[in-house]
Amino acid sequence: MEPLEIPGSLLDRLRSQIGPRREVWVLAAVVAALALGGIALWARGAPARIAPPAVEDSAPEPSATPEVEGVVVHVAGKVRHPGLYTLPSGARVADAIEAAGGPRAGADLDLLNLAELLVDGTKVEVLGAGAAPSVSSTTPVTPNAPAVININTADQITLEEIPGIGPVKAAAIIEHRDASGPFTAVEGLLEVTGIGPATLESLRPYVAV
After folding, report:
1. Residue 61 phi, psi dihedral angles, 5° rounding
2. Would you tell me which of 78, 134, 147, 160 could form a disulfide with 104, CB atoms 3.0–4.6 Å apart?
3. Cα separation of 121 and 84, whole Å?
4. Tens digit of pLDDT for each residue in 54-64?
5. What SS3 state is found at 74?
6. CATH T-level assignment (fold) for domain 149-208
7. How confident is the model over 129-178, as pLDDT tens digits?
8. C-alpha 47 chain-centroid distance
9. How do the domains of the chain map onto residue ranges?
């Protein structure tokens, strides 16, 4: 940087007013003032840096899909509005018939167990008076369901083909049959270890004596 030149007239005027001893200090003050002024002018002309605005993540959070509790049943036969109905868990056959508008004239509700608990996929068929259901009018619909099996003559392998009967229950049925004789009714399965009322109801469509 080249030294700052001060005009001679200005220097002579300063010498006449403040004397030679203060000349150096005055010159230093003038130089400092000029330097500060130049820095201020440069800073004023420099472009300001603007920070870019922060971008917020506005992606919505995935919402949990509420789970729907209940069972879907098919109500058919002599009811006012046959069709598919979704009922709360713990519903019974009577609830399914009521959801379908109730029985029509000529329906025989005594052919059904109105207190039977419904499971998902059950078909409730309300029959007319004098009709006889083949096995049960409230049968869970199961693709390729096995034929009705006689629990008095079936062996271990055949018993295991019944839905809900595994090797342990099949062996228990045979053991009870050998010890107590043939079953006289399907309800006799309640005496077999590991089979309770709920299991018996699920077995009814598939067993006979």
Report:
1. -75, 140
2. 78
3. 10
4. 655 555 565 54
5. strand
6. DNA polymerase; domain 1 (1.10.150)
7. 766 554 445 555 444 445 789 999 999 999 998 988 989 999 999 999 99
8. 56
9. 8-43, 71-140, 149-208
